Automatic annotation (TrEMBL):
The chain crosses the membrane at residues 12-31, 104-127. Keywords: Membrane, Transmembrane, Transmembrane helix. It comes from the Bacteria. This is Uncharacterized protein. The keyword Transmembrane helix applies.
């Protein structure tokens, strides 16, 4: 597999693109951690509410139990405290639910902040880079044999811009039928250059 083009200009841009892609992923991961931590810190309010509700519930319940011991009026006086303790318990549950919701939101936002850029980098850069590497490797392998070079020549006729083909060989179809070695070599070289592979028959 050939990762970089044999053409210096294209290879430089590929290397720069690779660095930008890596930098984008690193920055996205760092940003996701920072934003996730910032959102998660808001869960402290829910924890405070839950702690306050728990404290109120315990205090009011204890007070109600103490008042219940008062003869004659104890139960009547204690009941409002028991009801208030139940409300405080609901406040504790609401605080816990708020904390859980904030934690879930922090996790979802943090994941989205690194996952979406990663998918974008994969689709926009990594997939085309892998296609280039696969094509370059296959073209380099074909160039090692005469039959492979003939196939490269046919690919050039079919896939390369017609103007470029005609500049290389004025009548490519006739040259292909006649088995013109020089013409086939020129067409194969055209296909190799397009794939980012240096023609092994040429000196570097």
């Amino acid at each position: 597999m050939q990762l970089y083009s044999s053409r210096p200009g294209q290879a430089v841009w590929q290397a720069v693109g690779d660095l930008v892609a890596i930098g984008t992923i690193i920055a996205a991961v760092w940003l996701s951690q920072q934003v996730g931590a910032a959102i998660a810190s808001l869960g402290g309010f829910g924890e405070q509410v839950a702690a306050a509700g728990s404290g109120f519930s315990t205090t009011l319940a204890d007070a109600g139990e103490a008042l219940a011991q008062v003869p004659l009026v104890g139960e009547g006086v204690a009941q409002p405290f028991r009801d208030a303790a139940g409300s405080a318990t609901e406040l504790e549950a609401a605080g816990s639910a708020l904390t859980d919701a904030v934690d879930m939101l922090a996790g979802a936002v943090a994941t989205a902040l690194w996952l979406l850029p990663l998918l974008l980098v994969v689709l926009v850069w990594i997939v085309p880079r892998l296609r280039f590497a696969t094509r370059a490797g296959a073209s380099r392998a074909l160039a090692q044999s005469r039959e492979g070079r003939d196939l490269l020549a046919m690919r050039a006729i079919v896939g390369q811009p017609m103007a470029a083909v005609l500049r290389a060989v004025p009548d490519p179809v006739a040259a292909l039928r006649a088995g013109d070695e020089d013409a086939l070599r020129a067409l194969a070289s055209l296909e190799l250059r397009s794939a980012g592979v240096r023609d092994p028959r040429l000196r570097p």
